[in-house]
Design a protein that fits this description.
The complex is a heterodimer of chains A (502) and B (196). Chain A is of the alpha+beta class. Chain A is 25% helix and 33% strand. In chain A, the strands form 7 sheets. Chain A has a 6-stranded mixed β-sheet with strand order 23-22-24-29-25-28, sandwiched between helices. In chain B, 33% of the residues lie in helices and 21% in strands. The longest helix of chain B has 29 residues. The chains are: A alpha+beta (502), B alpha/beta (196). At the A-B interface, helix 2, strand 24, strand 28, helix 10 and strand 29 of A face helix 4 and strand 7 of B.
């Protein structure tokens, strides 16, 4: 009887679609960083066991009869129960926040499964830092950095305490102070919002650098670094610019320069976030001789993608006021590099490629969203991006910071933002159109790799499915699809343009 | 000849006949392909008398959503390079029921080689690309069926690059980046019960 109950729990278990947590988990290894998707179910955060197995090279065997899952790593074993919040780790029982759950075909484990069950059987150190949402695997140097801002001034004081002590370099250029820590990553639980003479504090994708944007009224800051046995402290004191200090007593805010300053500032060196969403590129997949997938009734992918791209352009331009550049607006061949070049040359802030999917089996259907998965070279490029910036002279005697990163890996420094956008797309699409077997995936997509901006790709339907081939041509379906994409763009725009939350 | 003598000769003939029948039926079993059974690996290559290994090959799962790792007999090859060729030749053949073929029919293996660094190059004929029906899902399954078939069976190979017609290719059908080598990836693999 209990056996049947266990099987039922395992098969029927918590199928409920969980909600995404406020921010994704970030895995940090010697190879670099990558986001890891997690789900909140009944107040507990879960991670996909398949994701975990792929990340940590674990072997997973599901045993429906015994009512659990066996996870093996180099001959060491964890047996997790399907109905009890506990696991046997090399024969020792540990308790967990929740029993393993199921979402569709995927098995989910509570987050504390990683430190409690996997860490004891693993070769390398595994550390889960919940506050900063970091999962650190292996010998990686990730000091904690506490940022405090005292706006009562002038001067406005900002302190960065790095624990344990680390070598820190600082620089002041073009109204920005950069604090760079010589570590593999930084663990920053909260970043305060700008105040006083500091407009914004941002941590880049690389997160070994903290960029502090100063107010237009700010003078040259005093920067000092002190190291004790416990920590390294960077103190940035920002005074009011000398000119303004001597101005008439009631200090009228300078009318034009203040708002203009942020937009005229050079593009951020390392910032993960693009400041604005002003231009986006919509890429209608395939075209010309390249028909893409052909449906059973002869519908061509290249036509569907063009129809949807035109519809999306109209909607986004009319409702959101964002400029939309199309990589093609007729039936012609555009190479994948050319599509990236159009996006990069338009200085687009977002890239979205529209496609229809194909399966070897006609019954597969649903919408799926992809963002780029980096290979070893990509991760390397992403890690080195910060170290390879150059300040290059451009026309007019001014200089511009340029990230030196191989052109075909331009996406490397945007993967976190792309993952954010892709998750928003998946969530909005799920509300309006049926989801595919893997609604959100990371894959080595050629058309995303050269885009120097957050980028994602949507496989709108499986055109190989007869029913979906019919539906995708209907006004209703295309309308719902484009509304969902629009919803995600609105959310991503808000995310980009919002000041970082403290 | 006495009656006893006749009986002796008849007995010897009978013994020979029975022995011949047993021998022929045993031989028949050895030479003929084994009947399909979920317990024993079926040969991916026809001649069962050829020495073989049991290799893991990858096909589409019956629901078309993932890769199935299927144990099959593959002719024994001398050294990793020759063994890799044999594995890929088998991988390019039609999938055994109930699995789905992921590599376009007519695709042939032009060359296979392994560098000292553990990078393998799989050079496929143009059909792999020109006859591919397209779609990201189908393309991912095709690419990782090839990559996993090589990396799962040859310990000396860490990464696999796919070439088309002897040259580096962008993609098979417009999606998956073929410009750089791939490592083994089991995210798309769904374990199958037993062997095929």
């Amino acid at each position: 009887m209990s056996l049947i109950a266990v099987v039922l729990v395992l098969v029927c278990g918590p199928h409920a679609q969980g909600t995404a947590p406020a921010s994704p988990l970030t895995l940090i290894t010697r190879e670099g960083r990558r986001p890891v998707a997690s789900t909140v179910l009944n107040g507990q955060e879960f991670i996909g066991l398949d994701d975990l197995a792929a990340l940590l090279m674990l072997a997973v065997r599901e045993d429906a009869l015994a009512g659990g899952v066996t996870v093996t790593y180099k001959g060491r074993t964890v047996v997790a129960s399907a109905d009890q919040p506990m696991a046997s780790v090399n024969g020792r029982v540990v308790t967990l926040a929740a029993p393993i759950a199921r979402a569709g075909r995927r098995l989910l484990v509570p987050l504390d499964f990683i430190p409690r069950a996997i860490a004891p059987i693993y070769d390398s150190v595994i550390e889960l830092r919940r506050a900063s949402r970091l999962l650190i695997v292996g010998n990686v140097r990730v000091p904690r950095a506490a940022i405090r801002l005292e706006a009562a001034g002038p001067p406005t004081r900002l302190t960065v305490d790095v624990v344990p002590p680390f070598a820190v370099s600082t620089a002041f250029d073009a109204g920005r102070v950069l604090v760079r820590v010589d570590a593999d990553a930084l663990d920053i639980a909260t970043t305060p919002a700008g105040a006083g003479l500091i407009d914004q504090i941002r941590t880049g994708d690389q997160t070994t650098t903290i960029a502090i944007a100063l107010n237009a009224r700010a003078g040259t800051p005093r920067i000092s670094t002190t190291t004790t046995n416990e920590s390294t402290r960077v103190l940035v004191e920002v005074p009011v610019a000398a000119q303004q200090e001597t101005a008439a007593p009631p200090p009228p805010p300078p009318p034009a320069p203040a708002p203009a300053a942020p937009t005229e500032a050079p593009p951020p060196l390392l910032a993960a976030r693009t400041a604005r969403l002003q231009t986006m590129v919509v890429d209608a997949g395939h075209g010309g001789e390249d028909n893409g997938v052909r449906g059973p009734k002869g519908t061509l992918e290249k036509q569907i993608t063009l129809d949807a791209a035109r519809r999306l352009k109209r909607l986004v331009e009319s409702r959101l006021g964002v400029r939309v550049v199309m990589t093609r607006d007729d039936d012609r061949a555009v190479s994948l590099d050319e599509r990236n070049a159009i996006a990069n040359n338009s200085k687009a802030d977002l890239f979205l490629s529209l496609h229809t999917n194909g399966s070897p089996l006609a019954s597969v259907k649903g919408t799926e969203v992809y963002y780029l998965r980096l290979d070893r070279a990509g991760e390397e490029a992403r890690r080195n991006a910060a170290a390879t910036e150059l300040i290059l002279p451009v026309v007019g005697g001014i200089t511009r910071p340029i990230d030196i990163i191989p052109w075909d890996l331009a996406q490397a420094s945007h993967v976190d933002a792309s993952s954010r956008f892709a998750s928003m797309l998946e969530e909005e699409l799920e509300k309006r159109v049926p989801a595919g077997p893997r609604p959100l995936q990371q894959a080595p997509m050629r058309v995303l790799s050269g885009a120097n901006m957050p980028a994602a790709l949507i496989e709108m339907v499986y055109l190989t499915n007869g029913e979906q081939e019919q539906r995708v041509k209907s006004d209703d379906f295309q309308g719902a699809l484009v509304e969902a994409i629009y919803g995600a763009i609105v959310r991503f725009k808000a995310y980009l343009e919002a000041p970082p939350t403290p | 000849m006495s009656r006893t003598r006749w009986l002796q000769v008849g007995g010897i003939v009978l013994v020979f006949a029975v022995a011949a029948w047993i021998a022929s039926s045993v031989l028949e079993r050895v030479v003929a392909p084994a009947p399909a059974s979920s317990a024993a690996p079926t040969p991916a290559a026809p001649a069962a008398s050829v020495p073989h290994i049991i290799a893991t090959l990858y096909y589409g799962t019956p629901d078309g959503q993932a890769l199935a790792a299927v144990k099959r007999e593959v002719p024994l090859g001398e050294g990793p390079r020759e063994q890799g060729r044999q594995i890929l030749q088998s991988e390019l053949e039609e999938a055994p029921a109930p699995y789905l073929s992921l590599i376009p029919r007519g695709t042939t293996l032009r060359a296979f080689y392994i560098t000292d660094r553990g990078d393998a190059f799989v050079d496929l004929s143009a059909e792999a690309s020109t006859m591919h029906p397209g779609g990201t899902t189908h393309e991912l399954l095709t690419v990782y069926a090839i990559v996993n078939a090589v990396t799962a069976n040859l310990a000396s190979v860490e990464r696999v690059q796919i070439l088309i017609d002897g040259k580096q290719a962008d993609t098979l059908a417009g999606h998956v980046d073929l410009r750089r080598p791939f490592e083994r990836d089991t995210v798309l693999v769904r374990e199958t019960k037993g062997t095929q």
